[in-house]
Amino acid sequence: MPKSKPKAGLTEIGVKYLFLFGSMSLFLFLTACSSSVDVSRQSVTNLESGIPSFSGPWAEEFRTRYSLAPTPEIQSFLADEQISEIEMQAVTEKFRNCMQGNQLTFTSFDVGGGFDFGFPETMGASTANEIADRCSSTSGVNAIIHLYYQLRSNPTNKDRSEEIVSCIIRAGIVPSNFSVKDYRTYPITELALVDEATAVTAVQFCEADPSGTFVG
What is the pTM of this model? Predict the structure, then answer.
C-alpha cells in the first residue's frame, strides 16, 4: 500500500489512495460515509440487470462504477454518462464529512483522484485506513471521483498508453526501456527505481496529463 511519511506533531499523514480503474497500475482500491443530494435523472435501462445501457466511449467504466454506487443518488450521477462538477463536489463533501466525523482530516483530491489524510497519533494507521476505506465506499468516492477526472482529461477515452509510458520514463522512476507492455502488465512498484509512494504519485500525474507532466 502506498503510504506517505508521518508528519511530526498531533497528526500523522495517512495513505494516499489512487483510483486508477482500467489500468495495470492500480495499487489500491478504496471503499466509503454516505451522502445525499436530490438529483433526478432517467436513462435507458437494461431491464434484466437494472444497469443503464451505457454506450459512450467510457461505457465499460460507467457500468463498473454504476455497480459500485452505494446509493440510488450516486447511480443517478452516473446514469447519463456524465459527471458534473456539482456532483463531484457533492461526493467530495460527503466524504469530507465522513472523515471529519471520524477524527480524520481531508482537504481535497489530487489530480486523478488521489488524496492524503491526517489522523490522531493515538488512533493508529490501521484504524485510520479502515475508516478512510469505509468513507470512500459509502460516500460514492469509488464510483465517482477518479472517473470524473478521467472524463475531464480524456473525454474520448483515447488509448494514451504510449504517452503515459513516455511520461513515466521522463519522470525518472523506471528504466529507459520501460514499455507499454510493462505498463499494462506489471504494477509500477515492481519495476520502479524509486520508493513506492514516489512511483505511484508520478504514475497518477502521468495518467492525468501524460503530455504536460514532467516536461522540461
Answer: 0.72
pLDDT for 54 equals 95
By the 10 Å C-beta count (0-12 exposed, 13-18 middle, 19+ buried), 64 is classed as middle
- pLDDT of amino acid 213: 83
In this predicted structure, what is the pLDDT of residue 110?
86
Contacts of the segment 117-124: beta carbons below 8 A, 24+ positions apart: 117/13, 117/14, 117/15, 118/7, 118/11, 118/12, 118/13, 118/14, 119/11, 119/12, 119/14, 120/10, 120/11, 120/12, 121/10, 121/11, 121/12
Q: Residue 119's beta-bridge partner residues?
A: 12
CA distance 36 to 148: 18
pLDDT under 70: residue ranges of the chain: 1-49, 216
- Characterize 104-124 residue by residue with b for buried, 16 or more Cβ atoms within 10 angstroms of its Cβ, and e for exposed: bebeebbebbbbbbbbeeebe
